[in-house]
Fold this protein.
Amino acid sequence: MTLFLMAKEMKPADVLKLDEHHDVSFPNSVVEMMSGVLGIPPGGWPKKLQKIILRGEEPLKGRPSANLPPADFTAEKESLEKKTGHVISKEDLLSYLLYPEVFAKFDKFRQTYSDVSVLPTLAFFFGLKSGEEITIEIEAGKTLIVKFLTASEPHPDGTRTLYFELNGQSREVNVRDKALRVVERAHPKADVADAGQVGAPTAGVISGIAVQANQSVERGAKLMTLEAMKMQSNIYAPIAGRVVKLLVAPGQSVEAKDLLVTIAP
């Protein structure tokens, strides 16, 4: 919530001035917490704040998990293995059941780049300097010694050749340098004077879309989900009408105020 308020340049007092029919896309984690998904603290949540965050919806009553259907681990495991195309461990299955969207992204990354948890933290986040050497234990009794030598000048296709040593043997690999080319963005911005133009509240990635072009929506209907700073926020229709333009797709990166949807009354 703090990160969200800082990104939106809002103060706590600004939140308390909202009514339950506002169009602020609070992070889903905050909405779920206020709804009682994580339980209720002693004395409950501040009623006014809870009503604002939940946009007038009633919070859950009783123990959060009391009404959840039991999970069929065998069926869920078979279904997940079909989705991912590989064998799923017990830990993976539990991770998926608890955090399905997060696990899907994690598993895709792991299948692409393998298990990067074996890398030293600094090497993973910042890479190696010329002449720097690290050891990587890929499994019990198997250790790799990697020494970075240098990188070539950029090639015409936007790649560079990286030269390194693996257990004392010279190696090289071509990788794309994403910093070599900057593409000027031409995405239109939402017109704040037009109530039917829905803009991105913050920079982020569109993780899901709940509507399609020419679909009729009511005011407050969920349009899509935006992920930013490890938080997910739902974006709602500010007016009732018909979706005449849908300018983004799942997985697309957007900047703050980028036009996402146009709704005609």
Observations:
- Helices lie at 2-8, 12-16, 28-35, 47-53, 73-84, 90-98, 100-113, 121-126.
- The radius of gyration is 24 Å.
